[in-house]
Amino acid sequence: MPVFPGAEGYGITTPAGRGGKVIKITNLNAYGAGSLREAIRTPGRRIIVFEVGGIIDLTYNQNGGDGSFLYLTDPYCTIAGQTAPWPGITIRGAGFRIKTHDVLIQHLAIRPGDNSRGPRPDARDAISIRGPSYNIVIDHISASWAVDENIDTWPEPEVVRDITVSNSIISEGLHYSIHPKGAHSKGFLIGDGSKNVAVIGNLFAHNYTRNPFSKGGVSAAIINNLVYGTGNGNFMTVGSDKADLGANKMAFLGNLFLNSQKSAANIGIAVGKGIEPGTEIYQFDNLIFGEADKPIFASVQPSLEANISPIPLDGLSVRQVTGVKNRVLSNAGSRPSERDPVDARIIKDVNDRIGKIIDSQDEVGGWPDLAKTYRKFVIPEDPNGDNNGDGYTNIEELLHRMAIGLSR
């Protein structure tokens, strides 16, 4: 049974926090009772819901530096951002560091930014999934303004596997910002040896590279994503910069690559150096729209092309590329039916084919002035019961309805 109705990908049969305690977030504080951090730190199965809306600012905190991260290390956790009243929850200054298993995170905006007092720049991601981690589902997230990558997976020291990132906006990785390497606008890094990673129905916009980029020994399915406004002439990349990581097993299906009015890319799926023997890349129905909107099919090195997918695709829906733009633009992000000003601007950029790679969030107005709001969350009677016998608990049924309410 998928963790929520309609979930597709790898790791989606996780129960996440099903059957656990319900924890209410009652304030926007970075620390302390009633805060998101306190709920995340609570051990045991748990479903985290919100009675508040607004910005949780992690920039200034008790510990400083990397203490800003929201460390999620205890398994069996659901974070249900759909329960927050308008304007929803935006996390500022830092992001999530996940190192556990069986997690569902939905309907949050995570925008770290370039404040000098945040986590160290070379690790300042919106979401970082570190090994050993598995059965992680990230759905309807808006991840932007990271200094390192907006999202990454990374073995530390053990493998990351069975991960799905779906229906999200991954945008405006900061370029000439405060990263020690210099230029570093990055979308999504699928790190060394990550296995069974699904990237489905997302919008990548205004990231110079890594839309996504898979390193060595990775197996991943990249399906029905819309990629817009890259900077280096490539959209998606398969590569390796270390030896002995093993072959890549990749499937690219129904992805749409869209240039801005001022840029053109001629490679949809690029293959980097150091690819291990046995690498297989299956691609079908991927499409580049150039300046004149003439379709050009993406291609990979012919010697690496596979006739069938080298990674299992059972249970994964693959839609025709011709419908990807409309579907992604209407469905992706933390709150599709009531977008905050940042996501609304990103969607407009893609529709109008404007915008650019940015160096700081201040170039595009910075964080919007979002109201602090409150709405009581009423826990249903017998929250962990199953009144209709469909396998989902009563509180999960409520969460599903609230998520549908944020859809277009």
Short description:
The chain is mainly beta and 408 residues long.
What does this structure look like?
The chain has 408 residues and is mostly beta strands. The protein has one domain: Single-stranded right-handed beta-helix, Pectin lyase-like (Pectate Lyase C-like, 3 Solenoid), CATH 2.160.20.10. 9% of the residues lie in helices and 31% in strands. The protein is built from four helices and 27 strands. β1, α1 (36-41) and β2 form a beta-alpha-beta unit.
As a whole number of angstroms, the C-alpha radius of gyration is 20 Å
CATH superfamily: Single-stranded right-handed beta-helix, Pectin lyase-like
Largest sheet at a glance?
19 strands, mixed
Q: What's the overall average pLDDT, rounded?
A: 91
Task: State the separation between the terminal residues, measured CA to CA.
Answer: 25 Å
Helix content: under 10%
Low-confidence stretches: none
- CATH architecture, by name, is 3 Solenoid
Total strands: 27
So what's the overall shape?
A: globular
The CATH topology comes to Pectate Lyase C-like
Given the structure, what is the number of helices? 4
